[in-house]
Amino acid sequence: MSYLDLYRQVSVDIDAEREAALELLGPPAGSVRVAVAELLRNRTFKYPLSVLPMIVHAVETGTPEPAVPLAVVHELWWTSACCLDDLADGQGAFVVGDLSESEAQLAAVVCGNSLPLLVVGSRGIPEPVRGALAAEIVKCWIDATEGQLRDLHGDMGAVTREPVIAAYRGKSGAPFSMVTAMAARLAGVTSERVELWREFGNIFGILWQMFNDQEDILSGRNEDLLNGTVTYLLACVLEGADLQSTERVMELHAAARNSDHARAELTGVLLAPAVLRRYEDDIQGFRDVALGILDKLAGDAAYVPVLRDLVDRASPVMLLRAGRGTA
Question: Is the pTM of this model over 0.85?
Fold first, then answer.
C-alpha cells in the first residue's frame, strides 16, 4: 500500500471532518466560514500528504482513523501558509476565487491558526492530549515563521548549505514535524518516541522542500528565481565556488527576477553535473537519516512500509535528467 492508496480509502472521512471543522466556527462567524470555505475550495494539493499523521498513528497503533482530525489540521495549516506565502511574494494582484486580497488574508489567518486550535479542542480529540496538541500548533507557527523570515532575509554574501537547511527546517520541517509529533501524542507513546517522530517530520520536510524546489524548475514556473529565493541547490553552487564565479552567480540571481535570459543562464549553472552530484549526495544523506529514524521506531508492519515508500517518493533527483539535457 502507498500513501496514495491510503488517501483514496480515507478521503471521504477527511472531507467530512473538514466540513465538521468549518461548523466549529459557529453561527456568529458566518462570513468567516464562507471565506475560509472559499479559501479551501480554491487551494488543492497535487500530493495528498494530509494522510501523514494518519500513517504515523497507524504505525503506532495499527489504526489510522483516530488521526483524521490531524489530517484536517495539516490541510488547514498548509492552505493558510501557501496563501500567506503567495501574498508575501507579491508578484501581482492576488485573488482567491471570489475573495479579494484582504479577504483572503483574513481567511488565511483563521484557517491556519484559530480553526486548527478548534479542531484539536473538539470532541474528536481525547481531552488529556488537547493542550499538548494545541501547543504543537503554536510552536509550529513560531518555527515556520522563523524559517520564512530566514528565507526572506537570505544573505547572498554568505550562502552555504547549513543556513539554507536551517530555513528549510522551519518553513517546511516545522509543519511536518508538527503533525508527526501530534499523531504520536494522540497515539499515547512515550516522550522519547514523540521526539523521534518530530525529527522524522523535520527531515521529511527538508526532503519535501527539495522535491518542491526541483518541481519548480522542471515545471518552468521558476517561482524561486522570480522571488529571489535562496534554495539549497543555489547553495550547492555557491559553496566553495571561487570569487569570480560567485560574483557572476550573484549577478544572475539578482537579475533573474526580471530577466528571462538571466533565469535561463542561471538555470544552466544550477543544472551543472558537478552541482547535481553534490545535490544528489546530500538528498541521499537526508533520505538515509529519515529511514534510519523509521528503523529505530519500527512499529506496525502493515504501515511502516507506507512511510518508507513516502520517503523514497520524496527523495529522487529529478533534475539529473534535465541536467543531462543541458550538458
Answer: yes
